[in-house]
Amino acid sequence: LAKTTQPISMDSYEGQEVNITCSHNNIATNDYITWYQQFPSQGPRFIIQGYKTKVTNEVASLFIPADRKSSTLSLPRVSLSDTAVYYCLVGNGATNKLIFGTGTLLAVQP
Amino acid sequence: SAVISQKPSRDICQRGTSLTIQCQVDSQVTMMFWYRQQPGQSLTLIATANQGSEATYESGFVIDKFPISRPNLTFSTLTVSNMSPEDSSIYLCSVEGQGGYEQYFGPGTRLTVT
Q1: B66 and A CB contact within 8 Å
Q2: Number of domains in chain A
Q3: Which of A42, A45, A100 comes nearest B43 by C-beta?
Q4: For a FRET experiment, which of A98, B70, B88, B113 has its CA 20 to 30 Å from that of B7?
Q5: A43 and B108 in contact by Cβ < 8 A?
Q6: What are the backbone angles phi and psi of residue A81, rounded to the nearest 5°?
Q7: Does residue A2 form part of some domain?
Q8: How far apart are CA B78 and CA B63, in angstroms?
Q9: Minimal CA–CA distance to B20: which of B58, B84, B87, B67?
Q10: pLDDT tens string for chain A (110 positions)?
Q11: Looking at the domain assignment, is residue A105 inside a domain?
């Protein structure tokens, strides 16, 4: 299963768009990609899921290039409350193998 | 989405003892998962638990150390056996959402072994 890596941290200001990239070079054909947000002392919270191309929901967009070796979570107009750790997860529905990325600490400043 | 609770929320245990962590879901689910998250680190899958079958363990985790029960579709337990300080971590359970891709997590159990 794909080994997933992310930048350790990112800084942003309120109102900016933030893009967090996850690298999963060994992703398999049947693997899917999901992203989670985690606040201190809480379990991760599901944000978005995709397989290829672009997916958008009410809180984020997910961009996946054709080779699927990376994915980018885009958060529009971040606020202070978006300060959290963001994880990508590559999973396989058939085998239930689930690999979390290394996590990116996003710090949003006023 | 599912609402998941875990007990205990935290505990301090002596080495050599065992602790059983409970995970309760507010709806019936097929797939439940147990993770370990060491301080400041990412999550590592310990095992997958389906009701009515033996849990499937990931590489590096064994049933003797982390026995799991899954007696029904809303409940599971994870036992951390013969604990050592290296077992100090946060243990989280999760369930698979209806879409088959998303997971919903409990708040975690913070375990400290002295």
Answers
A1: no
A2: 1
A3: A100
A4: A98
A5: yes
A6: -70, -10
A7: no
A8: 10
A9: B67
A10: 558 999 999 999 999 999 999 999 999 999 999 999 999 999 999 999 999 989 999 999 999 999 999 999 999 999 999 999 999 999 988 888 899 999 999 999 99
A11: yes
